[in-house]
Design goal:
- The protein has 435 residues and is mainly β.
- It has a single domain, classed as Beta Barrel (Porin), CATH 2.40.160.
- 12% of the residues lie in helices and 52% in strands.
- Helix 2 crosses helix 3 and helix 3 runs antiparallel to helix 4.
- The protein starts with a helix and ends with a strand.
């Protein structure tokens, strides 16, 4: 029997919305016997999700993605992700590892991949001096949805800012010193990032050694970081960020990055690749506020100095349209395949234009519904006035289980960022178990 995607989405929504929330409402007390600390820790999580994508058959990216396929009004995907992590500590040394295994099933077929997200060794020479070598996620920046100063890590997904990321292989040192006076703490973190062959190949040009560093201050009750990145793999850059709690429920944060002689590559409507070189300044300013009703507001404004203008993006979409028209009239795929290569190389970043607004509202346990947390978030493109709107319903009946429903709507004019998404909306159900 055929069931429409609208029916499936409605049933999924009902399933999450009307779960018997009070079934797990009682509390349990366990007496844990005294145990000796173990030198190792082992854990992880497993997540299964099912997603439905409603196709936007009028978008250029739909033409590019599905030009030689005949799909219905929607496609779906099934994912199972297993993350394992552990560490072993002996004296001043600690070994650690984190792996990510993803098993995906979608309209393209099957794809299974296992990646080491993190893995290395840390030496605690003294409580204030450590040396670390290996693959690690180094988190720089204070922003929630974006981090223009995250010079040493892969970019976040603004649709899921808290998702785990794969690290880079680095050698780093941490030195921390406490002081008296207005400046209470100072710390310095130098980082070496080698890029050779398959080692950190996604970081930039290969066969180069790159150097980065962060200087941290706790001054006047404000967290302040000054960062830099220098090397031949990518353009040199410097940055600064700050975070300050004005009250227990009000925090202001910001960051700014300057990239020297940034090379932006883009195509015109004929598919000719151009390079524009200029200094690029990116910045973010945000606020986090918790009110008396346990409602959390996160708001951020972001300027991407390395982003594309409206004209550059329209030229990109025009080129895809020309390639699709050629395919329809002659059957030639060369232009479309070339546009796919350009998309992967230069237009694959999330939110690749210049100015954005972000707002997320999270309500903890509304109407006294235990373990239930709904939220609403929007990413608004200031340049072309397009946006994505996401609602999320999170239910945690026990401490190590998450059940989540997520619905995202994409809207915008012709040749706008969110208006040209290959789908109008997507709906997904997730189940995640920690162990």
């Amino acid at each position: 029997m055929f069931i429409s995607k609208q029916t499936v989405i409605f049933l999924l929504y009902l399933f999450v919305s009307f779960l018997p929330l009070n079934v797990f409402g009682s509390e349990y007390d366990f007496e844990i016997p005294d145990t000796k600390d173990k030198p190792y820790n082992i854990g992880g999580n497993i997540e299964a999700d099912y997603t439905i994508y409603s196709l936007n058959k009028d978008s250029e990216l739909y033409y590019q993605k599905f030009y030689n396929r005949k799909e219905g009004s929607s496609v779906n995907s099934y994912d199972i992700t297993l993350q394992l992590e552990g560490d072993y500590k002996k004296n001043a040394a600690k070994l650690y590892i984190k792996t990510n295994t993803n098993m995906k099933r979608n309209y393209l077929g099957k794809d299974d991949e296992t990646t080491i997200y993190e893995g290395g060794i840390l030496f605690e020479v003294t409580p204030s001096f450590t040396i670390e070598a290996g693959k690690k996620v180094i988190k720089w920046g204070k922003g929630y949805a974006w981090n223009p100063t995250a010079f040493t890590s892969r970019p976040k997904d603004p649709d899921d800012p808290e998702a785990s990321l794969e690290g880079y292989s680095t050698l780093s040192i941490d030195y921390i010193k406490s002081l008296s006076g207005r400046i209470k703490t100072i710390a310095f973190t130098p980082v070496i990032i080698p890029v050779y062959n398959d080692l950190n190949s996604g970081f930039g040009e290969t066969d180069h050694l790159n150097f980065a560093g962060k200087l941290y201050f706790l001054a006047y009750d404000t967290d302040i970081d000054i960062m830099f990145l220098a090397g031949k793999s990518i353009d040199d850059r410097v940055g600064v960020d700050f975070s300050r709690n004005f009250t227990t429920n009000l925090e202001l944060h910001g960051e700014a990055a300057f990239i020297n002689n940034f090379e932006k590559k883009y195509i015109d409507s004929n598919g000719i690749l151009h390079t524009k070189q200029s200094d690029a300044i990116s910045y973010l300013l945000g606020v986090r506020y918790l009110n008396a009703y346990d409602t959390t507001f996160i708001a951020e404004i972001y300027r991407n100095g390395a982003g594309f203008s409206n004209e550059e993006i329209r030229a990109y979409y025009n080129y895809i349209q020309k390639g699709y028209n050629t395919y329809q009239t002659t059957g030639a795929e060369n232009s479309l395949k070339k546009s796919i290569g350009y998309t992967k190389a230069y237009y694959s970043d999330k939110n690749f234009m210049k100015q954005y607004l972000y707002l997320k509202i999270t309500q903890k346990e509304p109407f006294n519904i235990l373990y239930f947390t709904p939220s609403l978030s929007i990413i608004f493109n200031i340049n072309d006035k397009s946006y994505s709107l996401t609602t999320e319903l999170l239910y945690e009946p026990i401490s190590n289980l998450e059940l989540k429903f997520k619905f995202s709507l994409f809207n915008g004019e012709f040749h706008s960022e969110f208006g040209e998404k290959p789908y109008d909306y997507k709906a997904a159900c997730f189940a995640k178990y920690y162990f």
